[in-house]
Structure to design on (814 residues):
């Protein structure tokens, strides 16, 4: 094989790999990108159950109930709208009423069925998506993280 | 006083770094030995000053000096001493100080151990190293001063984030940073080589031990982080494809590719430009990781910084270093002429295939990590790209690589033959088939990827053993001859075998835990029993206890197998009153075949019932053992005599390094 041909072989392999990776990435993007919704977005757009999505907002005060068998229900609010959530499992350590959370799951028959609930920060922290959702709903109190000094 | 002393030492270090970044470089360009000679002492002084600064920070933590903001925000008098020390780097400012401390440590190490390096080259390396340091000193002093005072001083601190109060996580950041920052050496060597316009076998031999050291630490750091997530987050998982995890994984992928291409440069004097580019990419990924984690653009436990000026500063640094080095590469790279030619089917070809797959995988991970940020910046929808995406893209890319990994070592340099190599692997292939079939028969509706993973692990593991078997001519030559050959295998070759075998073990662990995990969530009253993965867990109730700076809720489980008591497990839920934050400590009983894993959640009702989460995680321990074996392999390779000698002399039996190569075949 000539030098040029050898080089071409590797360029060929590289292109093949890139094409394979691109194909994998595109199909995976199609199926696995998860969009973020605020409660207002959910009620406005009524997403179908076949899509996974993320819901962010504050856990409404006094809304947490534990019916049975490890199932937990609560409502998530962006202060303008509210969406009921049901979740089976152990809540993250920092889950509290009035606290910002992000839940991942599907919206089925007007209930957000979550299979993952994230609230993994210190108690002053609010996920940026949640802060933005609340700002958008016009209820933001302008309480940024308080700094000492 | 300590705080002011530390602050002052940092300012001095910045000034010293400015000298180190310029004078030796100019000296090397103009051939002025006196200026070149400045490189070594400045590297030592810089190291002394950062050590002093870092020591001062640890000191203010140890004495709980609450007139320092950083201590107030991250410490408390009740905190155990280990976490007082670890608290100094468990926050944004302190972790950056750790960053420059390790950078200066590596710089001083090059000055001390790089005696074989030509003085001008060494001066350039140390200058480049100081330029990076300069950027970080400026960043710390201008935006993230860890020694800032507060008046009036509060009586006590706010405590370190309890999730970080853990022995594994206390040493995770230093380990990880030794890896991240270690790639700066490979980067500085690459830039110095570009300035000189010359890369040769000797260069590759100098770069390799440093890259190996960085790689070993990075492997350790990632493993520790993963292990921590496994037992501390209580979800039974060990890798979540979280952007922060990806940030540490991307330099690892680039560094692994670099290790393999440096071998080709050393042995065959080719792939030079590519290797230099990989060195630049590896460190760029380290910087990108630092940016992602430290700028606050990501939502994660690591995201301490919320101050936008910091993000902008790191971004500017990132653009300057990556853009500058790539521009230099575009300008000088074409001068790096390669002489060695080789066939696609050859050892070089196999190593290049490794490189192509590693970089493709790196690109895929990079895209998945940055895409949501990119969409957010251009004002699109808020999206997240999670584990399903990465699994769907990354795992299929790894399949051909693992297959090639077992074949590659059987290839000759320059020109190999695929059929004899495959012939020698026939028993390996059979073994992989049997292992896959066995995994499939355990649970016939088990996951496809799990079965593939077990088969691949068996293929790679047996392939490594087959290669040693062939190398020593076992049963083909007299036994004494085989033993003699075994003794003559160089350490770097053992290193490869161990590292590859470690990966095989780790893959088996990942396939087992990823494929056959059993999960059970329920409410349990005392005395109730559930069966998970063939073990019966009886909940014995909960009781309370007291830790040094937290209260504990213990959940006790008696585990029986076939009616016999197997073990007793106590899961903990800790509550840290100062930080007002609970943490989960999973109870884990490790066996070779799998981990028994129990977590206690919230109380339910008044009858002492609790939500519990119980897992059976098959083969997890293989993953940790595999990672340790990989690190051991790296260490063996690093201590190979060839690297210690380091002088660019030609050895008689190193046929490949210098012989003239014909261009046709």
């Amino acid at each position: 094989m000539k030098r040029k041909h050898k080089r071409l072989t590797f360029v060929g392999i590289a292109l093949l790999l890139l094409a394979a990776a691109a194909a994998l990435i595109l199909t995976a993007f199609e199926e696995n990108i998860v969009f973020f919704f605020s409660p207002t977005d959910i009620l406005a757009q009524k997403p179908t159950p076949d899509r996974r999505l993320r819901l962010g907002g504050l856990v409404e005060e006094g809304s947490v109930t534990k019916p049975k068998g490890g199932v937990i229900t609560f409502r998530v609010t962006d202060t303008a709208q509210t969406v009921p959530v049901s979740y089976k499992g152990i809540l993250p350590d920092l889950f509290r009423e009035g606290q910002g959370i992000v839940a991942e799951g599907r919206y089925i028959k007007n209930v957000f069925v979550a299979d993952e609930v994230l609230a993994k920060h210190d108690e002053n922290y609010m996920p940026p998506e949640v802060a933005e959702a609340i700002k958008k709903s016009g209820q933001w109190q302008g309480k940024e993280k308080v700094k000492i000094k | 006083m300590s705080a002011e002393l530390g602050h002052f030492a940092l300012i001095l270090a910045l000034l010293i770094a400015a000298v180190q970044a310029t004078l030796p470089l100019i000296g090397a360009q103009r051939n002025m030995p006196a200026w070149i000679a400045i490189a070594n002492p400045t590297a030592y002084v810089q190291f002394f000053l950062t050590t002093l600064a870092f020591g001062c920070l640890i000191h203010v933590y140890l004495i709980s000096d609450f007139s320092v903001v950083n201590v107030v925000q991250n410490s408390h008098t009740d905190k155990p001493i280990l976490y007082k020390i670890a608290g100094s780097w468990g926050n944004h400012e302190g972790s950056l100080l750790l960053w420059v401390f390790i950078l200066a440590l590596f710089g001083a190490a090059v000055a001390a151990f790089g005696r074989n390096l030509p003085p001008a080259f060494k001066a350039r390396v140390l200058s480049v190293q100081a330029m990076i340091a300069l950027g970080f000193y400026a960043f710390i002093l201008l935006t993230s001063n860890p020694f800032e005072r507060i008046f009036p001083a509060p009586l006590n601190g706010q405590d370190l984030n309890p999730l970080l109060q853990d022995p594994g996580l206390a040493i995770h950041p230093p380990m990880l940073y030794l890896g991240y920052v270690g790639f700066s050496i490979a980067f500085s060597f690459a830039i110095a080589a570009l300035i000189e316009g010359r890369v040769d076998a000797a260069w590759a031999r100098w770069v390799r031990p440093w890259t190996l050291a960085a790689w070993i630490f990075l492997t350790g750091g990632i493993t520790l982080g993963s292990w921590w997530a496994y037992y501390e987050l209580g979800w039974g998982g060990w890798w979540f494809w979280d952007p922060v995890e990806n940030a540490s994984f991307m330099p690892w992928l680039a560094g692994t590719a670099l290790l393999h291409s440096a071998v080709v440069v050393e042995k065959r004097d080719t792939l030079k430009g590519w290797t230099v580019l990989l060195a630049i990419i590896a460190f760029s990924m380290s910087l990108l990781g630092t940016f992602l984690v430290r700028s606050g653009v990501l939502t994660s436990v690591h995201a301490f910084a919320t101050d936008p000026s910091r993000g902008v500063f790191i971004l500017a640094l990132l653009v300057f270093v990556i853009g500058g080095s790539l521009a230099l590469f575009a300008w000088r790279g074409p001068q790096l002429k390669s002489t060695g030619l080789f066939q696609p089917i050859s050892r070089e070809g196999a190593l290049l295939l490794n490189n192509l797959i590693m970089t493709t995988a790196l690109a895929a991970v990079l895209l998945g990590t940055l895409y949501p940020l990119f969409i957010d910046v251009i004002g699109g929808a808020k999206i997240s790209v999670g584990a399903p995406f990465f699994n769907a893209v990354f795992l299929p890319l790894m399949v051909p690589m693992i297959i090639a990994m077992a074949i590659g070592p059987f290839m000759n340099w320059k020109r190999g033959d695929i059929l004899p190599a495959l012939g020698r692997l026939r028993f390996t292939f059979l073994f992989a088939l049997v292992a896959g079939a066995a995994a499939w028969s355990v649970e016939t509706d088990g996951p496809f990827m799990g079965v593939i993973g077990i088969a691949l692990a068996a293929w790679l593991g047996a392939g490594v053993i087959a290669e040693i078997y062939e190398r020593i001519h076992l049963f083909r030559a007299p036994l004494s001859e085989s033993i003699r050959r075994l003794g003559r295998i160089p350490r770097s070759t053992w290193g490869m075998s161990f590292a590859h075998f470690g990966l095989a073990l780790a893959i088996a662990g990942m396939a087992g835990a990823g494929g056959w995990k059993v999960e059970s969530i329920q409410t349990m009253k005392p005395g109730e029993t559930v069966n998970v993965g063939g073990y019966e867990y009886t909940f014995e109730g909960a009781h309370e206890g007291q830790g040094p700076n937290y209260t504990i809720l213990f959940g006790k489980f008696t585990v029986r197998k076939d009616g016999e008591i197997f073990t007793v497990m106590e899961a903990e839920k800790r509550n840290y009153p100062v930080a007002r934050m609970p943490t989960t400590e999973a109870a884990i009983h490790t066996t070779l075949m799998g981990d028994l894993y129990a977590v206690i959640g919230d109380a339910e009702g008044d009858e002492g019932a609790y939500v519990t989460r119980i897992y059976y995680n098959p083969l997890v321990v293989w993953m940790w053992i595999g990672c340790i074996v990989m690190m051991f392999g790296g260490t063996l390779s690093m201590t190979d005599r060839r690297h210690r000698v380091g002088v660019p002399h030609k050895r008689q039996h190193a046929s490949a390094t210098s012989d003239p190569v014909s261009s046709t075949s």
In short: Chain B has a mean pLDDT of 88. The two ends of chain B are 72 Å apart (CA to CA).
